[in-house]
Amino acid sequence: MNKKDINLILPAVTIVLAIGAYFLCSNYLMPTIGENLAKVSAYNQDISAAEEKISSISTTEKIISQMSDTVNNLLIAIPDSVDAPNVIAEVETVANKNQVALSSMTPPAVSAGNASNSGMAVNVSVSGTYTNVKSFINSLETSIRFSKISNISISSSDEGISAAINFNVYSRPAS
């Protein structure tokens, strides 16, 4: 072989090698790349599903926390039992907060007949300005403790407003 033939054969061999490399890659490496792309796509879908589950779990945890707070508030609002000392302390606190004079308060003992209602009747007499008595009544109505005002008698005098309030404070029934 002479130099001219080698110069002609060398590009032909290079072309044949390039074509062979192309077929080799397309037959052996390309399917592997395709399989890897499919796996990557499947992993991305799994990651998206996992992120959705994490988001769902986070939302559920927030809802459970809110429900737990609500249950705790209900346990405070409707205690196991109604005890007179706590009711007296709460009414005195509400009276002091609203700047009314607490003239009298008579929380009778819970009787067997009253136990079916799971509550205690309380009678309170207060006096003060119209605004303060109104605020006191509003505070009783919106108190955290579950109660129901059953009767209000209001009278006025030169010194202000007097109110006699009858309400029931409730507790959870025995299970």
Given as residue ranges, the uncertain stretches (5+ residues, pLDDT < 50) are 111-116
CATH topology grouping of the largest domain: Alpha-Beta Plaits
| Shape field | rod-shaped
* Percentage of β-strand residues: 15-25%
CATH-defined superfamily of the largest domain:
Ribosomal protein S6/Translation elongation factor EF1B
| Structural class designation | alpha+beta
Q: What can be said about this structure in brief?
A:
The chain is an alpha+beta fold and 175 residues long. It has three helices and four strands.
Defining key terms:
175 residues, alpha+beta, Alpha-Beta Plaits, 2 domains, 58% helix
What do you see in this structure?
With 175 residues, the chain is of the alpha+beta class. The chain folds into 2 domains: 1-77; 84-170, Alpha-Beta Plaits (2-Layer Sandwich). 58% of the residues lie in helices and 22% in strands. The protein contains 3 helices and 4 strands. The chain has helices spanning 3-77, 84-97, 130-141, and strands at residues 101-106, 119-128, 147-157, 160-170. Strands 1-2-4-3 form a 4-stranded antiparallel beta sheet. Mean pLDDT is 83; it is low at 111-116.
